[in-house]
Amino acid sequence: MNETGNDNAVDFEGQINKRRDALVARKRAENESTIARITTLDTGWEDVNGDIDTDLKGGLDSVGVEAQAIQDARDRLTRNVCEGVDKNAFAIAGKLVDIKSKVGLPGLTVEIGFASQNTGAQPAGGQPTLVLLRDAASAPTGSGLRINTNFQALDGGQSIATETDNFGDFFFSLPLGASALTSSAAAGQISALILVQFGDTVVFRQERTFAPKAGATEHVTIEIDCSGKLKDVLEHGKQVAASVESDAKLVETRSANFQTAYATFKQMSDATLSQLRLLKADLSGGAPQPAPAGATPTRAATAAQPTRFLGNSHQRELHDLENTKKQCHIDDIKADHRVYFRSEREAVAAGYDYCRYCFGKQKSKR
Length: 366
Description:
The protein is α/β, with parallel strands linked by helices. 37% of the residues lie in helices and 20% in strands. The longest helix is centred in the N-terminal third of the chain and has 67 residues. The chain is rod-shaped, with a radius of gyration of 42 Å. The protein starts with 11 loop residues before the first helix and ends in a 12-residue tail after the last strand.
């Protein structure tokens, strides 16, 4: 409006328009500066979160390897999992267990003696006699095999020995070209004497036959009464089993923690990046244009123009009026705190957070 009839008339309308235009220009410059900062933050955010994502995925992969190792250990508690042997050899994969608890027995010596087919005296069945002797001088001629405290073989026989590992497992790989095995393998089976020793005491003895085949593995489980001297061995085996189960629980907890951390990180990262880009999109839409002369500035939506999205300006919280819950307390929002928005994006860009009851806990930061 212009005041006339007076030399000192003041053009109030012109001054208002000039001030408004100056404010618009300043706002446009601020928007451009903010957009540039958001662009930088957007790029930096992706780089930083890319590194965190890589680290967390690496942690998940590491826990996965640990979990597989634990599963392998659990398998070994119940069976000898050794497989694979040279194509020109025959393998025996064995396990020593307590006859009652079936717990593996570590630290016992397993010795196997194979009789030679080239012995002088053989029983009617054609198999050489296997004799366990403590006195080297008393070994009968032509017995095929004499097992002393060092498990030595006579007359071309062969003997091998090893100790059971922490799981009670033992493994022998026998070249089929060995003198004690060649003729027996050709005949289809081989006679052997299996001894288990605790120190100098033989706690198990068994004669049995094997059918050696090139590249094959035969699994053997030997059950032993662990009363008397073997109580400590059994206790050791139980401790190994308990340790495996304890480690399994730790790995399960670590895995769950990593998965929770990764899911939370991804949710937070995606939400933050999304909000940055929404804000940038709103600011890039252009600064407000000067209103026509005489126009009254209005909000995008007002209390007189209700929409689906109601904001509580006091708590900076956005509600969805089509999905409200009693916990939202919509009726308690004062009239001068009610702000309506045309979209979720508009509310988020204005700094409002989602109500956890209307939109769900995943969207809300509250």
